[in-house]
């Protein structure tokens, strides 16, 4: 099983976590959130994020951690890039609620599969009409 670490501008990370807990109350031990406060230096946020990452890795059965950040190039993303190793932890930026829910849904799969499903979930949800929906790898859909 994999865990999820949300790093985003305050209050987004904790708000997303609360939404995930609303839908999946059993994921509380597997999803942590770091809200990046405007008055903290990036080094302080990085220290808190390192602690959170280590706490997630200590949860029984956790094999990998997916780190989800809000905006590429902003402080949360920059902090997250310093955390992930590309093997036991991976980073996706541009987190949204469908991406998070999809990640929680597939946290039992390999980290690579979870990353793929999260990206598809986060992009597919952008067009509710389905006219420009991103296709998930697999059979051709009508």
Keywords:
single chain, alpha/beta, Rossmann fold, disordered C terminus
Distance between the termini: 33 Å
What percentage of the residues does DSSP assign to strands (E)? 15-25%
Average predicted confidence as pLDDT: 91
* Extended strand count: 4
Strand/helix succession? EHEHEHEHH
Multimeric organization: single chain
> How many distinct domains?
1
Give the strand order of the largest sheet, numbering strands 1, 2, ... along the chain.
Answer: 2-1-3-4
CATH architectural name: 3-Layer(aba) Sandwich
Low-confidence stretches: 138-142
Largest sheet: 4 strands, parallel
CATH superfamily: Phosphotransferase system, mannose-type IIA component
Tell me the helix content.
40-55%
Radius of gyration, in Å, reads 15 Å
What does this structure look like?
It is built from 5 helices and 4 strands; from the N terminus they run βαβαβαβαα. It has helices at residues 12-23, 42-57, 75-83, 97-105, 111-124; strands at residues 2-9, 31-36, 64-69, 89-93. By secondary structure, the chain is an alpha/beta fold. The protein is globular, with a radius of gyration of 15 Å. Helix 1 packs across helix 4 and helix 4 (97-105) runs antiparallel to helix 5 (111-124). 42% of the residues lie in helices and 18% in strands. It has a single domain (2-124), classed as 3-Layer(aba) Sandwich (Rossmann fold). Mean pLDDT is 91; it is low at 138-142. A 4-stranded parallel beta sheet has the order 2-1-3-4, with helices on both faces.
